[in-house]
Design brief:
It is found in: Membrane. Keywords: Membrane, Signal, Transmembrane, Transmembrane helix. Its main location: membrane. By secondary structure, this protein is of the alpha+beta class. The two termini are about 80 Å apart. The chain contains 28 helices and 13 strands. Among the domains are: about 40-185, Sandwich (Immunoglobulin-like); about 485-540, no CATH class; about 760-820 and about 825-890, no CATH class. The strands form three sheets. An eight-stranded antiparallel beta sheet has the order 7-6-9-10-3-4-5-8, with no helix packed on it. A three-stranded antiparallel beta sheet has the order 12-11-13. A two-stranded antiparallel ribbon has the order 1-2. Helix 2 runs antiparallel to helix 3 (about 220-230) and helix 16 (about 570-590) runs antiparallel to helix 17.
C-alpha cells in the first residue's frame, strides 16, 4: 500500500472513532418534553440553562439557622413552567417534622411563593428531620402562568437581574423558623467582567504612564521638559477617574445590582483585587470567622427563639456525628446528564446577604472581598504597586545602559534620565504615594467605622497618620519653598458670571474675577456676581523667576506643580484638601446616610464652581477630563444616588433605570478617557520627536506645528482678550484696544554714503562678470600672469573684491539667485558656531567664508559688511601699486552653498 493510501486510511479510522465517540456522547444526553406559557411543546435537554437561576447563597438568619447547608440551588425554567430546587446539608436536630416555604423576589416585589410539606414532595431526608440522616433534597414544582405572571419577560434578558430566592424552614412542634437560606438570582447576562475589562483598562493606563514618563525623561532643558510634560495626560487624573467610579458605591444606600456589577470592573484601580489566599489569610486578622464551604449555625450559635423551642428537640452540643455529616459540595460530574454548572457557592464569611447590595460592603461583594478586609487588601496591593514602580524605573535604567553599550541607541539617548535616575525613582515613588492618598484616606476612615478587631484598626490609624502628615507636610513644604520671599495679601474681590460660548458654539455662563476685568479693562455682560475674598502673594524678590522657569523648583517639586498653569502652580495644595474632605464623606460618613449623601452633593457642587473659576491645568486634555468630565460625573452620580436612600422607598425597577443612567454617564466618561489617552500618546510622540525636521505620518505635520505653537502660548499663561464678534454681514467689529504708552525707539530712514578713494577703481564685480563671460583668448592671457592673480590673499583686508555700492533691487536679485532651501549650508552652520572660531579664521584660506564674515567692511551697504573698520589713506597708498597689478579672478569670489 502506498504511503498516501496508508495516511488516508488512518485519517478515515480517526474520523470513524471520533464519530462513534460523538455519537456516544450524544446518546448520553437526556431529553424531556415541555410546554411553555404560550402552549408550545418542544423537546428539551435536561442539562440546559434555565431562564433564571441562583448564584451564591447565605444564611438569612444571621448565622442562627439550625442547619449547615453546602448546596442550595433553585431555578425557573420558562420553557416548561417549572421551579426546581436542590438542598444538601445536615442538622443536629434529633427529630422534627417540618414545613417549608419557598419564594422568589424580583425588583423588590414577591413574584412567586409557595408553602409545602417536604413529605408530599418525597424529600425523605426531611420527612422527618433527623440528625443521623444527611439532608439531600430535590424537588420539581410545576407552576402555572398565573403564578409566574409577575415576572416580566424582559427579566430574562436584562443584565444583572435583581432578585433572590428564599427558602424558609419551620418546625411544626413550635411553629418557629429554624432555618432560612437566600440565594441571589441571575439570568447569565451581566456588566461585571473584571477579568476582561480590567486588563484592557490596565493596558490603556500603562500607555498613559509610559507617555507621561517619556515626556518627563526626554530632553536636556528642564524648562522645556516641563512644558511638554504638562501637556501629557496626568496619570493621577486617570487613577482618580477609576477610583471615583468605584468609590461611588461607598455611599450608604441600597444600590441596584446593575450598578454594583458595573463598578466591579474598576475595583482594581482602588486596590480591591481578589486573591483567595490573600483574603483567607486576612480573615483571621480582620476578625472574619466562618466556614466558606457551608452556611448556617447548627451547633455553634445560640438560637434566639424567645423560648419557643423545647430543648429535647434541639441538641445544641457539638457532637461528632453532626460534624461528620457535614461535607463539602460535590464537584460537577460531566458524565451525569442531570448535573449542572450554573449553581452557586456559599458566600464568603463577612459578606452581606445575597441579593442585597448595601453601601461599600455591597460594592465589595461584587469582587469577593469582605468589608472588614478591604483596608488590609488595599494596603497590600499599594505596597505591591510601590515595588512595581521601583522595578520599572530600575529596569528602564538598566535596559538603556545595556542598549547604549551594545550601540543599539546613541550614547546620549535619555542622558539626563540616566544620570539622574535615582532622583526620578524617588519622585516616582512620591507620585505613587500621592496618587494613593484618596484611596488610603477612604479605606482607613471606613475601617474606623467598621469597628473591627484592635489589630487592623491600629494599623489603619498608623497608616492614616503617616499618609495625612506625609502628604500635608510635602504640600506645605512645596508651597513654603516657593513663597518664602514674599508675603500674602487677603483682599475683597468678586466673581462675575457672564454670558459666553462654551466650545465656541454652546451658550453658557463663565466666571471671571472682577480684578481681572479691571486689570485688562474688559467689558462683559454680567449675569450675577458673588463677593469673595482673594488671597494673593506678593513677591519681594524682583529677581525671582517664574515658577515654571525655576529649574531648582521644578527638579524638587515638579511632580506636584508641573502640570498646572503658571499662576495656578499651587493648585495641588487645594486639591489635597478636597480629596481629604471627599474621603471623609465616603469613608467616615457610612453610619449617617442622609448627611453623607446630601453633604457630599453640596461639597461637590461648590468644588466644581471653584475648579471652574481656577481652571488650573495648562494642558487642554487634563482640563477636559479633570475639570469638566470628572466633576460633572461626580455631581450627577451623587445627585442621582439620593433616590436610593431607604427613606424614599423607591421602586426597584425605577432604581434600576436610574442605575442605567449612572452607567451611561460614567461609561461616556470612560470612553472619553480612553480617547484622551490615545491622543496623549500621539502628542507625547510628537514631543519626543520635536528635534526632528521630518515627522511621519506627514499629514500630521501641520498638527504638530500647531501643537508646539499652542504649547508655547499656554506656557506663558497670559490673559488673552476675547476675539472680536462678527456682525450679521460677517464683517468683524474691531475691538477697541488702548494704544500702548510711547516707548523710546528709532528708525533708519535713509543712509548717505560719502565717496571713498577706492571708488576710482570702478566696479570690480562688473569686471569679474565681464572676465567670466569674455573670450577664451582673454582668459588665456590672464592665465599666463603671476600666481598671485589667482588669489586675493595679498590684498589688504579692506580692499577685498566687492561692488562699489549695492541697491535694494540688486541685493534682492542677488538673494533670489541663491538656492531656495539649502539642505545643510556651511554658511548656516558657521553662523550657528561661536564667535571665537570665526575670528580665529579671519586670515585663513581665500575660499573661506569666515574671512568674508569677519573682515571689516568698507561700505555699510555691503551685504557682508560688519562696519567695524574704514581703511585710511596711508593703507590705501601703501597698496596702490599692488592693486594695480592684481585683478581678481572668479575663483576669489566665495560661493555660498
Amino acid at each position: 500500500m502506498a504511503p498516501r493510501d496508508q495516511a488516508c486510511a488512518l485519517l478515515l479510522a480517526l474520523f470513524s472513532i471520533l464519530s462513534v465517540f460523538v455519537g456516544v456522547q450524544a446518546d448520553d444526553n437526556k431529553y424531556t418534553y415541555g410546554t411553555d406559557g404560550a402552549g408550545v411543546t418542544r423537546q428539551l435537554a435536561v442539562n440546559r440553562y434555565p431562564a433564571l437561576y441562583t448564584g451564591d447563597f447565605g444564611d438569612c438568619l444571621g448565622g442562627q439557622s439550625l442547619f449547615n447547608i453546602t448546596k442550595f440551588d433553585a431555578a425557573y425554567y420558562a420553557d416548561n413552567l417549572t421551579i426546581v430546587f436542590h438542598l444538601d446539608g445536615a442538622s443536629n436536630i434529633k427529630n422534627e417534622s417540618l414545613m417549608m416555604h419557598i419564594s422568589v423576589e424580583a425588583y423588590g416585589s414577591s413574584r412567586f411563593d409557595m408553602t409545602f410539606d417536604p413529605c408530599y414532595l418525597n424529600i425523605y431526608s426531611l420527612c422527618p428531620l433527623n440528625a443521623s440522616v444527611p439532608i439531600t433534597g430535590w424537588a420539581r414544582i410545576p407552576v402555572g402562568p398565573q403564578q409566574i405572571g409577575g415576572i416580566p419577560p424582559i427579566a430574562f434578558d436584562i443584565p444583572d437581574f435583581e432578585g433572590s430566592t428564599k427558602l424558609q424552614i419551620f418546625a411544626n412542634s413550635s411553629k418557629t423558623e429554624i432555618g432560612c437560606f437566600q440565594a441571589v438570582m441571575r439570568n447569565g447576562n451581566t456588566f461585571s467582567h473584571p477579568e476582561a475589562v480590567g486588563p484592557v483598562l490596565g493596558i490603556f493606563t500603562l500607555v498613559a504612564i509610559i507617555a507621561s514618563f517619556a515626556t518627563a525623561a526626554y530632553g536636556v532643558s528642564i524648562v522645556h521638559m516641563r512644558m511638554h510634560y504638562a501637556h501629557s495626560l496626568s496619570v493621577f487624573v486617570v487613577f482618580e477617574t477609576f477610583q471615583a467610579i468605584f468609590f461611588s458605591g461607598a455611599l450608604s444606600v441600597g444600590w441596584p445590582s446593575i450598578l454594583v456589577a458595573w463598578w466591579s470592573n474598576f475595583a482594581w484601580a482602588s486596590g480591591m483585587i481578589y486573591s483567595y489566599d490573600m483574603v483567607h489569610s486576612i480573615n483571621s486578622i480582620a476578625g472574619v470567622t466562618g466556614n466558606a464551604s457551608q452556611v448556617g449555625g447548627a451547633g455553634s450559635v445560640v438560637l434566639n427563639n424567645g423560648g419557643g423551642l423545647i430543648s429535647q428537640i434541639y441538641g445544641r452540643s457539638l457532637v461528632k456525628q453532626a460534624a461528620a455529616a457535614v461535607t463539602r459540595r460535590s464537584v460537577y460530574n460531566a458524565s451525569d446528564p442531570y448535573d449542572y454548572t450554573w449553581s452557586g457557592n456559599p458566600v464568603t464569611p463577612g459578606m452581606p446577604t445575597p441579593g442585597t447590595w448595601p453601601g461599600l460592603p455591597g460594592a465589595l461583594s461584587s469582587v469577593g472581598i469582605p468589608a472588614a478586609d478591604a483596608f488590609l487588601v488595599g494596603l497590600i496591593w499599594l505596597l505591591v504597586a510601590i515595588g512595581l514602580v521601583t522595578s520599572f524605573i530600575t529596569s528602564v535604567k538598566v535596559v538603556l545602559e545595556g542598549m547604549a553599550r551594545i550601540k543599539w541607541v546613541r550614547e546620549d539617548r535619555l542622558g539626563y534620565f540616566r544620570s539622574h535616575w535615582i532622583r526620578y525613582l524617588i519622585l516616582a515613588l512620591l507620585r505613587t504615594f500621592f496618587i494613593s492618598f484618596f484611596m488610603t484616606m477612604t479605606l482607613t476612615m471606613f475601617q474606623f467605622t467598621v469597628q473591627g478587631p484592635t489589630g487592623p484598626t491600629a494599623i489603619a490609624a498608623v497608616v492614616f497618620a503617616l499618609s495625612f502628615v506625609g502628604v500635608i507636610g510635602l504640600v506645605a513644604y512645596a508651597c513654603r519653598t516657593r513663597t518664602r520671599h514674599g508675603k500674602f495679601r487677603l483682599g475683597p474681590d468678586k466673581v462675575v458670571f457672564h454670558r459666553a460660548k462654551l466650545a465656541r458654539f454652546i451658550p453658557g455662563m463663565v466666571p471671571i474675577w472682577a480684578s481681572t476685568l479691571n486689570e485688562h479693562e474688559l467689558k462683559v455682560e454680567p449675569i450675577f456676581t458673588i463677593p469673595l475674598f482673594c488671597l494673593r502673594h506678593v513677591n519681594n524678590d524682583p529677581a525671582c523667576v517664574s515658577v515654571h522657569q525655576d529649574e531648582s523648583y521644578i527638579k524638587r517639586f515638579g511632580w506636584l506643580s508641573a502640570r498646572y498653569r503658571r499662576t495656578r502652580w499651587w493648585f495641588f495644595a487645594y486639591y489635597v484638601g478636597y480629596l481629604f474632605i471627599r474621603a471623609a464623606f465616603l469613608g467616615g460618613g457610612a453610619r449617617n446616610p442622609l448627611a453623607q449623601v446630601y453633604g457630599l452633593l453640596i461639597f461637590e457642587i461648590i468644588s466644581f464652581g471653584i475648579i471652574i473659576i481656577l481652571n488650573p491645568f495648562e494642558g487642554a486634555r487634563n482640563t477636559a477630563l479633570a475639570v469638566w468630565m470628572l466633576s460633572i460625573s461626580k455631581i450627577a452620580t451623587t445627585g442621582l444616588s439620593i433616590a436610593f436612600l431607604p427613606e424614599f422607598g423607591l421602586d426597584r425597577i425605577i432604581a434600576t433605570v436610574i442605575g442605567v443612567v449612572i452607567i451611561v454617564i460614567q461609561g461616556l466618561m470612560v470612553v472619553g478617557l480612553l480617547i484622551l489617552i490615545l491622543l496623549s500618546a500621539i502628542s507625547s510622540w510628537m514631543s519626543l520627536t520635536r528635534n526632528r525636521e521630518e515627522f511621519k505620518p506627514e499629514f500630521l505635520e501641520s498638527t504638530r506645528v500647531r501643537y508646539f505653537e499652542k504649547m508655547e502660548t499656554k506656557a506663558l499663561d497670559t490673559f488673552m482678550p476675547p476675539k472680536p464678534k462678527e456682525d450679521k454681514k460677517g464683517k468683524g467689529k474691531e475691538a477697541e484696544v488702548p494704544e500702548p504708552p510711547p516707548q523710546p525707539s528709532f528708525a533708519v530712514v535713509s543712509v548717505r554714503r560719502a565717496p571713498k578713494i577706492e571708488d576710482e577703481d570702478g566696479d570690480v564685480l562688473h569686471e569679474l562678470e565681464s572676465a567670466k563671460n569674455g573670450s577664451p583668448a582673454r582668459g588665456t592671457t590672464r592665465a599666463r600672469r603671476t600666481n598671485s592673480v589667482g588669489s586675493v590673499r595679498s590684498l589688504p583686508r579692506s580692499i577685498h573684491a566687492r561692488r562699489s555700492s549695492w541697491s535694494s533691487r540688486e541685493f534682492a536679485q542677488w538673494e533670489g539667485e541663491l538656492p531656495a532651501d539649502p539642505p545643510e549650508s556651511s554658511f548656516a552652520s558657521r553662523l550657528s558656531s561661536n564667535n571665537g572660531a570665526a575670528s580665529g579664521s579671519r586670515r585663513g584660506e581665500n575660499d573661506s567664508i569666515d574671512s568674508i564674515i569677519s573682515s571689516p567692511s568698507v561700505r555699510p551697504a555691503s551685504p557682508f559688511s560688519s562696519g567695524r573698520l574704514t581703511p585710511t589713506r596711508d593703507v590705501l597708498a601703501r597698496h596702490a601699486e599692488e592693486r594695480r597689478y592684481h585683478t581678481p579672478t572668479p575663483k576669489s569670489i566665495p560661493e555660498i552653498e
